[in-house]
């Protein structure tokens, strides 16, 4: 299954690399990550809460819960709604136990079970109160899928006022499908809310924290930015179901649960139990970005619901709340701790600003209705925060009438950064490695905000995270990188998928309740993001950029901080090709460089929970002689060559970086 886009040639392929001909800078934001709560990405995924429907706010209040009667115990469960008093968290459960003996209670199934690890500590918390005259203890137990006890604790709420109670359990066994039960012992009645179980071992051991293994995979990429919270989730199926950042901050119990729009989006992957608790809210997203060294890049609803669904719009004269949300978000992120919104950030534990420099207005909108609304945002935001770069959209497709209209319009409006999305076949990625070669150097910058090779068809459930897709993305990414003077950000999408809870595939990282692994697509992204230079230099064959001739693709950069030359070379053919890289402008290169290779003769190769790194980079050393590097470019391979020098020729950006010539780019 050769991915041949042009004919083969024989003989050594000579590449001229001119490290002294810098033609542009690479933005530190260049390679980032795109986060959306799709595929159980947040609830049931990176957000480490193990209890599903902890506050009974799902559409069906007891979804995820079961009544339990031990030794024929009698009792009743009654859902109360105090909506008048607490609009954000209206429901709680009254558990009335009617037997002296036995135990009456509830069992939570978790998100396709709960991932529990032997020897680890789990922190149980609950909001509870006794009903008058009652003094019921609760036994909290972790059970394996087979019903064996993995640990327990007893909590006895005192008094008739709501209070928070805590207990910790150390698990005696490992199970990806464990469950939690809460059993009242004796007669009486208890009110329960926010029944929660977290591993102690979260990312940075934070309470209400994130799964450490999943964050680590992101941190390992050293991403330049973190885009959040989506995706179509920002838009909502209806405007009522849109993402509203202000409802995702402050006390976790006061963040109103909302349906997740991906629950029934695809008939082939219905997920009726998919809701957003917003335990991972905007504060936590900013904190995550900071933790992994990524620039925060929030995207806000622009007064339009998803156009693949209702496409509802807010009347133009009623946009004020949306604009105010955007202004307040900038203050929340960047304002002093004394400002109205900065104060809330400080109260949540982060007095220092988050230093947000980018804001997305709308996700994947199209049509005049987007332009009309974008202009209102632009006017208000630029008046108050001229330094915050706004990201505008060109719709869901990389070409066609919607794209052309918005591309032209946004350029005429002198937009800061334009977001382009491409969910396309692997062949498209190879054929479009030159996409940006002739983009206007003086116009808006580009954010390649969502892309992924669709190995079968867009969002087909048969798409695979295989080498064919990842290799094609690598070929395309050399084109992004060659044009990094205009493309300032790029991110693969979607990011996470739960093996039993996904709606969309392919996805960069797959998880189950205990494990996570990076796909070949992940390792391609990581190869690029962890080997990114500071400046662009030409790499050419026969005075032409390397954009698919002989199925070879290449980009080159230098890192002025480390004096390294970095070459990325992709061979999409099924033949090994001998390459010789002739380096100019590299002074006293070290005699040994490195090459990181990803290769497989099997384009269908994937990674798995059993073999998570089956296809991942391996590093070898490589000789540098007479300013030349020779490398056999193996069939279907991505190669990152690094050569360190005592210095790189001193140079400055040439005029080609500022516009005009594509020669040498
Ligand atoms: O990444 C999945 C979806 O694809 C995103 O939510 C949306 O922006 C795009 O259509």
UniProtKB/TrEMBL annotation:
Keywords: Glycoprotein, Hydrolase, Signal. It is an enzyme of class 3 (hydrolase). It catalyses: Hydrolysis of terminal non-reducing alpha-L-arabinofuranoside residues in alpha-L-arabinosides. Its EC number is 3.2.1.55. InterPro entries: Alpha-L-AF_C (IPR010720), ASD1_cat (IPR055235), CenC_carb-bd (IPR003305), Galactose-bd-like_sf (IPR008979), GH (IPR017853), Glyco_hydro_b (IPR013780), Glycosyl_Hydrolase_51 (IPR051563). Gene3D superfamilies: Galactose-binding domain-like, Glycosidases, Golgi alpha-mannosidase II. GO terms for biological process: L-arabinose metabolic process. GO terms for molecular function: alpha-L-arabinofuranosidase activity. Residues 449-637 form the Alpha-L-arabinofuranosidase C-terminal domain. Signal peptide: none annotated. Belongs to the glycosyl hydrolase 51 family. PANTHER family: ALPHA-L-ARABINOFURANOSIDASE 1. This is non-reducing end alpha-L-arabinofuranosidase.
């Amino acid at each position: 299954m050769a991915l041949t886009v042009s004919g083969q040639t024989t003989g050594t392929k000579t590449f001229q690399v001119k490290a002294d001909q810098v033609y542009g800078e690479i933005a530190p934001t260049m390679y980032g990550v795109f986060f959306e709560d799709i595929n159980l990405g947040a609830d049931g995924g990176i957000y480490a809460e193990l209890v599903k429907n902890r506050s009974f706010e799902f559409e069906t209040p007891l979804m995820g819960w079961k009544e339990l009667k031990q030794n024929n115990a009698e009792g009743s469960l009654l859902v109360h709604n105090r909506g008048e008093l607490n609009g954000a968290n209206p429901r709680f459960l009254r558990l009335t136990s009617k037997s002296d003996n036995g135990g009456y209670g509830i069992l939570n199934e978790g998100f396709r079970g709960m991932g529990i690890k032997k020897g680890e500590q789990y922190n149980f918390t609950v909001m509870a109160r006794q009903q008058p005259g009652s003094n019921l203890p609760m036994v909290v137990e972790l059970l394996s899928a087979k019903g064996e006890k993995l640990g327990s604790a007893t909590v006895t709420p005192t008094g008739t006022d709501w209070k928070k109670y805590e207990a910790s359990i150390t698990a005696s066994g490992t199970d990806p499908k464990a469950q939690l039960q809460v059993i009242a012992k004796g007669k009486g009645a208890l009110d329960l809310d926010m029944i929660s179980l977290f591993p102690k071992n979260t990312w940075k051991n934070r309470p209400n924290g994130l799964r450490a293994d999943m964050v680590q995979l992101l941190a390992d990429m050293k991403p330049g930015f973190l885009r959040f919270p989506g995706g179509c989730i920002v838009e909502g199926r209806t405007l009522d179901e849109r993402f509203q950042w202000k409802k995702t901050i402050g006390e976790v119990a006061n963040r109103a649960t909302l349906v997740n729009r991906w629950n029934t989006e695809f008939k082939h992957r219905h997920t009726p139990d998919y809701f957003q608790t917003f335990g991972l809210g905007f504060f936590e997203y900013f904190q995550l970005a900071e933790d992994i060294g990524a620039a925060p890049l929030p995207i806000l609803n622009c007064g339009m619901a998803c156009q693949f669904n209702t496409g509802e719009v807010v009347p133009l004269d009623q946009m004020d709340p949306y604009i105010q949300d955007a202004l307040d978000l900038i203050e929340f992120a960047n304002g002093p701790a004394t400002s109205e919104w900065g104060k809330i950030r400080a109260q949540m534990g982060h007095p220092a600003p988050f230093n947000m420099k980018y804001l997305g207005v709308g996700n994947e909108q199209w049509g005049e209705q987007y332009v009309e609304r974008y202009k209102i945002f632009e006017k208000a935001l630029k008046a108050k925060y001229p330094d915050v770069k706004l990201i505008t959209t060109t719709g869901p497709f990389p070409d066609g009438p919607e794209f052309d209209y918005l591309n032209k319009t946004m350029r005429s409006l002198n937009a800061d950064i334009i977001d382009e999305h491409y969910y396309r076949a692997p062949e498209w990625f190879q054929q479009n490695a030159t996409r940006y070669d002739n983009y206007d150097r003086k116009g808006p910058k580009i954010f390649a905000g969502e892309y992924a090779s669709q190995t079968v068809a867009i969002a087909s459930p048969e798409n695979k995270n295989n080498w064919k897709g990842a290799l094609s993305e690598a070929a395309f990414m050399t084109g992004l990188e060659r044009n990094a003077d205009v493309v300032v950000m790029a991110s693969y999408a979607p990011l996470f998928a739960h093996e039993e809870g996904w709606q969309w595939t392919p996805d960069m990282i797959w998880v189950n309740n205990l494990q996570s692994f990076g796909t070949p697509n992940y390792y391609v992204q990581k190869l690029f993001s962890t080997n990114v230079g500071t400046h662009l230099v030409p790499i050419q064959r026969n005075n032409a950029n390397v954009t698919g001739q002989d199925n070879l693709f290449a980009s080159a950069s230098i890192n002025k901080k480390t004096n390294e030359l970095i070459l990325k070379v992709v061979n999409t053919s099924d033949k090994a090709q001998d390459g010789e890289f002739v380096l100019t402008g590299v002074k006293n290169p070290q005699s040994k460089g490195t090459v990181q290779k990803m290769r497989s003769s099997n384009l269908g190769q994937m990674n798995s929970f059993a073999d998570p790194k089956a296809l991942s980079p391996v590093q070898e050393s490589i000789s540098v002689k007479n300013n030349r590097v020779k490398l056999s470019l193996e069939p279907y391979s991505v190669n990152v060559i690094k050569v360190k020098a005592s210095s790189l020729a001193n140079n400055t950006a040439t005029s080609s970086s500022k516009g005009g010539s594509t020669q040498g780019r």
